[in-house]
Every structure is written in structure tokens, then in C-alpha cells.
Specification:
By secondary structure, the protein is of the alpha/beta class. The protein has ten helices and seven strands.
Length: 243
Amino acid sequence: GGSEGRFEATGRGLLYVLQEHLAAEGGVRDRTVSVQGFGNVGGVAAKLLCEAGARVQYISDVATALHHPEGIDAQAAFAHVQAGGTLRTWLDEHPDAAEEVAPEDVLTADVDVLVPAAVESVLTEHNAADVRANLIIEGANGPTTADADAILNERGVMLIPDTLANAGGVTVSYFEWVQARQYLHWSEEQVNAELRRVMTDAYHNVISRCPLDSGGMCTQREAAQWIGVERVVEAIELRGIFP
């Protein structure tokens, strides 16, 4: 039947990494956020960020982008979508809950945190200079192109890469395998506790390779890739796969 907590795992892992990143600065409470994508990554992330006290000002799905300066009730919007609706039908039922904006406004919103959680290559050399968020945390796979990466790094925009931030889903899939191997069924609380441990440990491993005060000498994406490649090399050597 699968593992408890698997559906929310990617969005929840993203929240855990963001909380750890902002821990020394008061956490996510009262941070303004823009989330592109409203599926089981973006929608879950927006909902959990609301629950954690963040002010989610922008949300969007494939057809509709919404904004409210005081924050959108992402919990209610996500419940509506999970029941079979869309952001369009939610807005039709709650016209005072938000205003419709252009989809590109979600990426260039004047917020503290931008969460691209839809599709790949949405941040490019054409719009990276227009991004106003000081922090980007990637929920989608590959939402930032290499050219955009260079522009954002030059501008001093902090970016937490997908290989770290959205790994919560595959982590809980691993937990499912562990439970199956041991004939156990963990509670959702246990799954989430283990997920927080793994995600925060991974964050600190990355930061240890590229400190936040490195002055742009390296990026978190580079650090995460270095660690990943080194682990593959070590595994190959230990297993003797190649002479």
C-alpha cells in the first residue's frame, strides 16, 4: 500500500530545507512567497508554507496565476484542487480570495522566496535579470537553465538546487523500500521525522562544501553535484565494479 507521507514528501522536503536555510534568520514565518506550479509539489509546498506561517502571495497552475498581497489561502485552494477543481474554478467560487495576474508575474514577483515547482527551463537568460526574489528554491526538476544560473549568481541571488530541495519524494520512496525489506509500516509522524533528518543533514553537507559566505566563489548546485559525483565514485570503487 505504499508509505505514509509519500504524497506530500517532495513539498515537505522542500519546506524542511527552506526552514533550515532560514533558521538563523527567523525561519519561514512572515516570509513572502511565490509558487509556480500547483500539483503535488507546488500545491503541497504552498499549503505547508502557509501552515508554517509564510505569506504565499502568488500561486499558479498550468492555466491560471493568482496574487493577493496579504497572502492566499493556499490550504483552501489546494483542498479544492485535490477535490477535482482548478485554480480557475476556485477563483470563480471565491472571487475575493485573489486576483488573476499574468503567468510570468509569478516568476518575477517581488517576494522573499520564489519556488519554481512546475516544469523545467522556466528561468532562462531572458527573464533571470527580472527575478526580484532574493532566494530561489527549486521544486521542479531543472527549472533554471545554465545561462540563468550564471546571471542569478552574478546578481547575488541565492539558489537552492533541485537535486537537494526536491529530493524528499525519492527519499520517502527509499523509506518505503526500507519498510518493505523489514516488514514494517512506519507512522506518518515517523516518516516525516526521518525525512526532516535526511533533508537537513543533506542541506548541511552541501553548505559545508559551499558556505553561505563564500561570496559567489561556488554555488549550492555545484556543491551538491560535487557530493553526488564523489559518492558515485566511492560506491564504484568499494564495489569493485571496474578494475
